[in-house]
Design a protein that fits this description.
The protein contains 17 helices and eleven strands. By secondary structure, the protein is an alpha/beta fold. It has a seven-stranded parallel sheet.
């Protein structure tokens, strides 16, 4: 039986960060996890501790005057009706054992994760997707979270082997949006009723700390939207400044947990540094995103299982899981793309293993095939990012070719077809 766990839910993010500091100082083992939807709170992050230490932690936090809402057993999401749903399906013995664990709310171990990724595209495969979808419904509900992504610069100082924006790709026309252009899009997105704006770019130091802070403040002031930054690696001080200026979320994908593969794909970079950045972001109170690329040359199914275990251990709130798409004019141009099937499996298994996280059905999946993105939403994903980059730039934000222009209409169509719910406030006749 896995050890019983408790969740510490604090009154505010400041309280949570203070609890984090105090517990770290006293040597308590804990992990930051998203607050389960059904418990809802002002602060999106809870601290998960061993139930046996709950009394000691409670005393410590009282002594330190940290505002705590509750310290209570972590809800076990039991998929009570799962086996019933799968009844009559010809599932294998091993698959059935793992499903029983899920039915009882028992955490999956690495072997379970690996075996689930190995299921064939037959009855087990279908059942896996059904289970992923059920877990999605149970943990994050039916609303598909729609976020807008503005790609404001395609300059990049890095040279990732798989990416069309890499600095050595001299054939690509480059652009940077002005602050006025960025603001015009932000206002439009807000008018369409969208609540989160993702500001994404290559790693472009042209935008200084002060520039990004000014942009964040102005967007916040004029629209009040949640803002996600996805601008690559910066210093800890810069992350702190962005947070103070209004950034809520930060997306920084680990891409792969295979360290050898990581350093091959990212010349001059160390995996440990990347992981350290995620730690900083969490420490600073960001709702933090990580993720991987599925089907990278040289990646094994064991690597993918390790990715999922790492996602769980890192206690992040968002997982961007997308297939590898070979990009022309990059060293990986001749390799085959990642498969939609494996990407769906990684989404479903991540949902089953980690449960309460935001998982987008990615643009990369839509680029493989429009229907593939819809299926991503039907196997465990709960978020879609629509692209709101102005048309004149959209085509040259060319991470990979033929990038699908995921828009609001298509997204609402998918939501309707899947009989899911659209976020409140979205204007169906929007202007994005
Ligand atoms: N195929 C799939 N995903 C890619 N990315 C970059 N290049 C590719 C590619 N060729 C993803 C990376 C990065 C995000 C901005 O785009 O995961 O984090
Ligand atoms: Fe730059 Fe990101 Fe592309 Fe790497 S993946 S080259 S950091 S835009």
């Amino acid at each position: 039986m896995p050890e019983e766990r408790c969740l510490v839910i604090c009154k505010s993010t400041t309280d949570m960060l203070r609890a984090d500091r105090e517990m770290r100082r006293r040597g308590f083992a804990f992990r930051a996890v998203p607050v389960p939807g059904e418990l809802g709170s002002v602060c999106a992050t809870a601290l998960e501790i061993a139930a046996a230490e709950a009394a000691a932690v409670e005393e410590l936090l009282k002594e330190s005057k940290v505002g705590v809402i509750s310290i209570a057993p972590a809800p076990r999401t039991r998929l009570a009706e799962l086996m019933q749903k799968l009844d009559g399906k010809r599932i294998s013995l091993r698959f059935g054992q793992i499903m029983e664990k899920l039915q009882e709310g028992v955490a999956l171990d690495r072997e379970d994760v690996l075996d689930l990724l190995r299921v064939e595209d037959g009855s087990d495969g279908e059942a896996l997707f059904q289970a992923g979808d059920l877990m999605r419904k149970r943990t994050v509900g039916d609303t598909v979270d729609v976020r807008a992504c503005l790609e404001f610069s395609n300059y990049c100082r890095k040279n990732c082997l798989y990416c069309g924006l890499r600095r050595d790709n001299k054939g690509l026309a480059r652009y940077r949006m002005t602050e006025e252009e960025i603001m015009a899009v932000a206002v439009k997105v807000h008018k369409a009723g969208i609540r989160t704006l993702i500001l994404q770019s290559g790693e472009d130091p042209y935008y200084t700390e002060a520039d990004i802070c000014r942009i964040l403040r102005e967007i916040k002031q004029r629209t009040g939207m949640r803002i996600t930054l996805s601008i690559g690696e910066r210093t800890k001080e810069e992350y702190a400044a962005f947070r103070a200026a209004g950034a809520n979320n930060y997306l920084l994908k680990i891409e792969t947990v295979n360290k050898k593969l990581y350093s091959y794909l990212h010349p001059g970079d160390r995996w440990e540094d990347r992981a350290k950045h995620t730690g900083w972001l969490k420490e600073l109170g960001y709702v933090t995103g990580t993720g991987n690329i599925v089907g990278l040359p040289g990646q094994t199914i064991e690597d993918l299982a390790d990715d999922i275990c790492y996602f769980r251990e890192s206690g992040v709130h968002m997982l961007g899981i997308g297939p590898f798409i070979p990009a022309p004019d990059t060293p990986l141009a001749v390799y085959p793309p990642g498969s939609a099937l494996m990407t769906w499996k990684v989404i479903a298994v991540a949902r089953l293993a980690i449960r309460n996280v935001y998982i987008p059905s990615t643009t990369a999946l839509a680029t493989l095939d429009r229907e593939a993105q819809k299926k991503g939403l039907a196997v465990g994903a709960n978020t879609v990012m629509i692209i709101v980059t102005p048309e004149e730039y959209r085509d040259i934000y060319r991470i990979y070719p033929n990038k699908m222009a995921v828009d609001l209409n298509w997204t609402l169509e998918m939501i309707g077809e899947l009989q899911r719910k659209q976020p409140v406030g979205i204007k169906t006749t929007g202007c994005v």
